[in-house]
Structure prediction request, 78 residues.
Amino acid sequence: MCRGGWGSPGPDCCGRLCVNLRMDFFNCGRCGKRCRFGEMCCGGGCVNVFYDPNNCGFCGNRCKPGGFCRYGMCDYAS
Prediction:
């Protein structure tokens, strides 16, 4: 049984491992769903952190309104 407390990777169980389906690269949103190169698991979905203006460089890093994300940086070379 998995618990989301201190020292546990997450509250979800995949096989015999405790994981966090909202953040785990190898179990993103569901057991066995892997994110591709350049993607991170953000909130249970794989996103391209190089170009996503809502997750630019890392999960939850939003570019300013009207801004863009390039190479994981907001408004790079604008």
